[in-house]
Write a structure and sequence with these properties.
The chain is an alpha+beta fold.
């Protein structure tokens, strides 16, 4: 069943242009899925068929829930930067809404995940009125932990996600709002 409110199809930040994930983005997602450095943090490389299923699943998520992943491009050049967004998922038997992000290796360390993360939090908490979000990363992805902490996520705890040791962080809307004043 679809949610009452639908997230915007397009979002812009100071440096990024984001658009709702679509079939036409397959080549970019497949290239990301073939980047060993990126996929070392996301469970390993994905085949062409796995990428097609990933794309279909995430497009269906938009239709079902009214939000999902966006493709990120550089505002000036239009080059593909990565993908990020909000998605429902089950973690340890509990339905959660995750802030997810994955940037192409050439865009790491520039603050872009944090920049788009802030925009995604605004969509989640102000536009969609979501009460809390989770975010997680594999245990050795310290750069991702820094992004989560900059965005205000707290309460790190161990998480076994599909057999991979991760760390789960949480951010409640009330805690996020208190950082805005």
């Amino acid at each position: 069943m679809a949610d009452m409110t639908t997230a915007p199809d397009r979002i812009e930040t100071a440096r990024l242009a984001a658009e709702r994930l679509q079939r036409g983005h397959y080549d970019w997602i497949y290239a990301l899925h073939q980047d060993a450095k990126v996929m070392a943090t996301l469970g390993g490389l994905r085949s062409a068929d796995e990428t097609r299923r990933y794309l279909e699943t995430n497009m269906a998520h938009w239709e079902r829930h009214g939000f999902g992943l966006w493709i990120l491009r550089d505002q000036e050049s239009g080059h593909f930067v990565g993908r990020a967004g909000l998605r429902r998922m089950e973690l340890e038997g509990v339905e959660e809404i995750e802030l997810a992000y994955a940037l192409a290796g050439g865009y790491w360390g520039r603050g872009l995940a944090t920049e788009f993360g802030q925009a995604a939090l605004e969509v989640a908490f102000e536009f969609l009125d979501i009460s809390e979000l989770v975010c997680f990363a594999v245990v050795d992805n310290r750069a991702s932990f820094r992004v989560m902490e900059k965005l205000g996520f707290t309460d790190p705890r161990p998480l076994d996600y599909q057999g991979t040791p991760c760390v789960l962080y949480r951010l409640r809307k009330a805690d996020w709002q208190s950082t805005l004043t």
